[in-house]
Each structure stands twice: as structure tokens, then as C-alpha cells.
Amino acid sequence: MCYELSLRKIKFERQVHINVIYKNQIIHGQRLDILIDKSVVVEIKSLKKNPEIAIAQVLSYLKSTNLKRALLINFGEYKLIDGVKRISL
Questions:
Q1: In what order do the strands lie in the sheet with 69-74?
Q2: Any idea what the CATH number is for the domain that residue 81 is in?
Q3: pLDDT score recorded for residue 37
């Protein structure tokens, strides 16, 4: 995926460190898989189905970064299109 982003000259960062706030506690050491153009969080999974916890994880990333858009991409689905979920606040 990063290779394709590079080919298309789309700015992105990998493994971006963030702190997540959970119930007024700061959880250090969390990482965004990919941050595209400092505006879209991309979380990558490889599971048979997207568990609800993955969606909650992405939502917490959005809230912690004050960003509005994310993609949850699950490469474990039979068809990739079935594994792409768009999430926004």
C-alpha cells in the first residue's frame, strides 16, 4: 500500500506515534499504521472479519488526533472490497 501511495506521490507517514486518552488516562506508545496527508488514518488488519474492537480502536485514534476520517482495511477478507470500512466522526 505504501508503495502505491509513493508511486502516486501521495504524502504519508508510517507507524506514527500518538497518545490515546482513555477515561482521562493517557495511554502512551500507540501507533497509527498509516497517516495519509496528515488527515486520514489508515488502520490495517488481516482477519477473517473486522471485529468491533478494531472499529473502536480507529474511533479512539480519530478522537485522540482530532482527525475526522479513517479507513479500516482488512486484508483477511475473501474480497478486499468487503474488507474496507470508511469511518468518520
A1: 12-22, 25-36, 40-45, 69-74, 84-88
A2: 3.90.320.10
A3: 95
